[in-house]
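Key result, reporting period 2: structure in, sequence out.
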């Protein structure tokens, strides 16, 4: 006869206080039927606006260049209009991570965003840092792979959210689940 603990019970909501996890504001945990734990981040409006600002400046520069070219009768051929351009303008929408037993799946949202898998054996470290120029140096959670490549998981995450997610991912990486 086996006993099922609350941790192994798939019907328990991991964000329920009875489950033993206190979530920071803006984070949501869920246990999909396929297994693992999904962490989803909800950014505030200021973080989303800061993420979009460099792209908006670039679009403004391109529009200004096109208007000047039209005004001075200089015709330049551009191909960047359409849905891929709009998806790029919105920015990377990586706000959900599915933590499996042996891999980390960074889920993209929307039609054009793609998910990618990071096997646990390929991950060297997970750390909190600052994004680059195009992310306006906002706080981010980074995964460094064994081969030296780095991937940003969440950009614009608050310090409390980053600390919570980082502690959980460090435990997962060490195999202490």
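The corresponding designed sequence is given below.
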């Amino acid at each position: 006869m086996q006993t099922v603990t609350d941790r192994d019970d798939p019907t328990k909501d991991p964000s329920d206080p009875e489950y033993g996890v206190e979530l920071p504001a803006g984070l949501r945990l869920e246990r999909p039927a396929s297994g693992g734990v999904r962490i989803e981040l909800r950014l505030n409006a200021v973080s989303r606006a800061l993420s979009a600002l460099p792209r908006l400046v670039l679009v403004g520069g391109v529009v200004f260049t096109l208007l000047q070219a039209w005004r001075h009768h200089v015709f330049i051929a551009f191909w960047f209009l359409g849905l891929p351009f709009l998806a790029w303008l919105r920015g990377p929408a990586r706000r959900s991570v599915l933590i499996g037993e042996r891999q980390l799946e960074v889920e993209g949202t929307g039609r054009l965003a793609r998910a990618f898998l990071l096997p646990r054996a390929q991950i060297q470290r997970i750390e909190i840092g600052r994004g680059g120029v195009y992310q306006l140096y906002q706080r981010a959670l980074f995964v460094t792979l064994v081969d030296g490549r780095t991937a940003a998981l969440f950009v614009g995450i608050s310090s409390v959210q980053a600390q919570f997610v980082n502690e959980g991912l460090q435990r997962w990486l060490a195999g202490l689940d």
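The longest helix spans residues 45-71. DSSP finds three helices and eight strands in the chain. This case is discussed further under Risks and Mitigation.
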